[in-house]
Amino acid sequence: MPDLYPLIRPLLGALPAEGAHRLTLTALKWGVGGLIAGSGEPDPPNLKQTLWGREFPNPIGIAAGFDKEAEVPDAMLRLGFGFAETGTVTPRPQPGNKKPRIFRLYEDGAVINRLGFNSRGLEPTLARLRTRRRIGVVGVNLGKNRDSEDPVADYVEGVRRVGRLADYFVINVSSPNTPGLRDLQRREILGDLLRQVVTARDDTAPGTPLLVKIAPDLKPGERTDIADLAGPSGIDGIIVANTTIARPPTLRSAAAREAGGLSGKPLFAPSTALLSEIYRLTGGTMPLVGVGGIASAEDAYAKIRAGASLVQLYTALIFEGPALVGRIKRGLAELLRRDGFSSITEAIGADHVLGSPVQQQASSPA
Ligand SMILES: Cc1cc2nc3c(=O)[nH]c(=O)nc-3n(C[C@H](O)[C@H](O)[C@H](O)COP(=O)(O)O)c2cc1C
What we know:
Layout lengths: L4 H10 L2 H13 L3 H5 L11 E3 L2 E3 L3 E3 L10 H6 L4 E7 L12 E4 L4 E4 L8 H10 L5 E6 L8 H12 L5 E5 L14 H18 L5 E5 L5 H14 L3 E4 L20 E4 L3 H14 L6 E4 L5 H10 L1 E6 L1 H6 L2 H16 L5 H4 L2 H6 L1 H7 L3
Helix pairs in contact: 1-2, 6-7, 7-8, 8-9, 9-10, 10-12
Bound molecules: flavin mononucleotide (FMN).
């Protein structure tokens, strides 16, 4: 099937970013994804992996924010993604920030958003998750309401109400668009938050993986704190990373001065460096999901070699369309073969083995 996205892209580009996104979701609901993507080929067998007892046919996921309310998780899986993450969803409905709040930075292959957890609350998401056929891995990314007086209680409520409807949970403490949210990453708060969400998970959905999504803007001490807390807390993985509040001087687009979180190409290098650091700090023992600026098979492969068991993308999809997913999978399978890896699991963290930071850490006395 030919890739029709190049024909559609100018139409979407002419719409305000949020309108284009709404139209895309509607089209996906009507089932036109396959027509546009040219999808349908089976996944290369060397991309398959079992993680947390779940089968991932390939490691490429759609990142949170694309499908905030679980409207199209199965359509995304049909497009060829190996897993889909819905959310961020907050317990109660809230409008988010004033529009416009999504800006496309064409010259930079980037986006700035300051949506601010616009959400119809948990109920519509739960209703949709209840009625879907449970095929494929669909995670639920949880947030807190802006006006919440007890942030930890919001995450606990999310875990308890979603329960077994999620194939994995994400505790999102890293969006830059909810005041105070990223402070939850600080050691003294995060320890208590993780304890409480892990307890809620163990009560309502034992065995469901619980991941924490972190910001690319963490200070060195905060990175060490998170790595130290992660293992003992009982969480199952870390997603590295959310959008950045940094504005690299290389940005060329006029919209670069907009407030919000920057995603896409300029985020690739810093988020991959952080991923590598977190892999090293956790001694390669904690599954990591690498996200930030992936736009090619080479990018996905670099994240995997840096330590990601799975990867996700969002922004590149806006510029390249859904055929990108097939291109990344084919390219990634080829890169693995080129480097003598018989399966993706062998390549995870491969960049660390030669220089041996993981081995050094593992063998040094505690
Ligand atoms: C428009 C937009 C909305 C997003 N909303 C969320 C969100 O609700 N929750 C979340 O954890 N991340 C959200 N993200 C961040 C992405 O999940 C991802 O971490 C980030 O964009 C980096 O990946 P990318 O460069 O491939 O886009 C959003 C990103 C964009 C562009």
